[in-house]
Amino acid sequence: MGPRFATPLLDYLAPREGAVPPVGGRVSVPLGKGRRAGFVLEHLDGSEVPAERLRPVLDVLDAQPLWDPATLELLRWAANYYCHPLGQVLAYAMPQQLRRGGKVPAAPVRWRGRNKALGDAPGLLARAPRQREVLEALLAAGRRGLAEEALAALAPGWRRIVRTLEDKGLAEAFEPGAAGLADMLREAPFALSAEQSAAVNAMRLDQGYACHLLDGVTASGKTEVYLRLAEKVLASHRQCLLLAPEIGLTPQLAGRLMARFRVPAAVLHSGLNAGERLRAWADARSGRARLVVGTRSAVFTPCPELGLIVVDEEHDPSYKQQDGFRYQARDLAVMRASSAGIPVVLGSATPALESLLNVRRGRYAHWRLTKKVAGTRPPLARLVDLNQHPPKGGLSAPLVRAMSAQLDSGSQVLLYLNRRGFAPVLMCADCRRAEECSHCDARLVFYRRRDLLICHHCGAFRRPPPGCGNCGGPLQSIGRGTERLEEELQARFPDYPVARMDRDNVRGRRRLEHILGGIRERRYRILLGTQMLTKGHDFPGLGLVGVIDADQGMFSQEFRGPERLAQTLVQVAGRAGRREQPGLLVLQTRFPEHPLLRQLLKEGYAGFADAALDLRRSTGWPPFAHLAVLRASAPEAASVRAFLIDAKDSAPQAGGFAVEALGPAPALMERRRDRNHARLLLRSSSRAALQEFLRRWIPAVRALKRPRRVTWSVDVDPAEIG
Ligand code: ADP
Ligand code: ZN
Fold first, then answer.
1. How far is the CA of 418 from the centre of ligand 1 (A)?
2. Residue 539 confidence (pLDDT)
């Protein structure tokens, strides 16, 4: 392990010799008896620490700042806003290899022969055949020269050889620049639709900050709008930063960009190894990469010439980091754009209620793409009341009929069930006791093929017992997960191969690509999956989408529960619809009169969102209120509670903060991983008041005496209360 970063703010003298280390660069400093790595955050004229106690910086690790001033400012802002130590935020925002003390790699260079070499070389190199060979290759490559990798393949020890050629004035290194930009922008193969061009033309890229919500149904051509905007940004010699919610979708978006633009790009996601990640980051930072694509943490990538930010699927929950440094990347993207004075585009088929409220309030411009590009109509939706059509093996008769018709006509069918395993509950038929996790307040999920009971919260697993531990009665599996439905489907439709996509069956990108390939080639006819299936993938052969249990999540205790459910249902439904004909959507429910389902069917997502916003307003939840959660846990309940009560008592009273502190209350899942979890909820109608409150309160909480076993965290703008 390399150096760990010190988190407190400390004063040091500039190093005894050499240049003053830049703000935003790493240094190594003495701390106590040891040495630690740190960042230079400010140059001060004086210090409150007495001069005799100030020690000088030992080493300067970066001659240049790691971040341009604007990105560094964003990081500072985020640390402050999300109440997280700045040192940890900076360490989080840089590639692992730099965290371990590594160097920022220099921009890659290419080598080419110099003109004079043509005349002089033969004489000069008569006795140096290896130099001669390399020079000939360089000359043969012309003005574009050769990349270092090509030279490495050509001649071992090439570095020394080209340096010698350079000394003799026969070769030179150069940085491949953005020369010949016109050449790098390929033309789009089609004209924009009226709705698309209205949006593209109205989004001015040269008039400072503006936030645009691009609200377009699935396959309405949102990505095409991003591409056209990126083209303008590239042509004006600026960089473009695009965020996608998942690693699975990042290469897809990157692929579409690369197919359109021949410019250097940096793709950042968690599937890269440390070296690739550092390289991509350094390319963005040096300005070499003109397109920067990545998942949520890419919002912190330094881009010195940024001209546009795009956040695709802006409603997606994965933009919120749920542990450690808890931040919302979409919100930070808007913040970054506003301080950089550039436009930002948020795209979604199901915009977050926050974004829609900003539209209502006139802060965001609203662009709608209402039609699918291919001209297919939205899917025909049908609710199936499971009370009237009791399901067999999870499928009601109307769903089976619709499936058979589609499959027989050659279409593919997608079934959505967001529950993994064979059955969510294994229960005694006599005394009704369910098998539970011994570390969590949770039932164990039964996996029949592996003959295991697994806890989805802590990962604990064990063999199912032969009978009930309480009364010895027989155990039966209740309910159904994807593993069970897969078996049932194979039994019922033996002629149609089933692709199951969930985290148990699809681990890693390779396997995902493999299954997606099989679906595209129609080797699979029935696709069964969890959330994993709903995101972004385009399945052109799909005629029917069936939602096995539309009620799942309907009774969530989280305030965002209905919003998430509506987004999921609309996103799943968006997969349906082949080019030639409208798709079918079948929703199985036990609550066909539920207002959420009624609204979605009658008025679509927009109608749902309007009503949901009104409800949030009248009940005082975000985005009409602003929240923070202080969560704590310990092996036993008493110390968690005592800590949270102390924390509540230390809340600033003076100044009349309009902030309510609610709790302590036990977490929704009180016992998890052998720890007891509880929380305080802070709520205010004013974001500024809540921030002011946190500014004073969190330092007081940090200073509290607490038993060592109590750990705590603060979550500003939480996605869930928990
Ligand atoms: P979204 O991002 O909204 O899901 P895409 O941008 O991926 O939609 O567009 C869906 C499909 O339609 C893509 O294959 C895309 O290449 C194509 N497409 C987009 N805009 C047009 C257009 N104006 N004319 C023809 N095809 C288009
Ligand atoms: Zn558990």
1. 28
2. 83
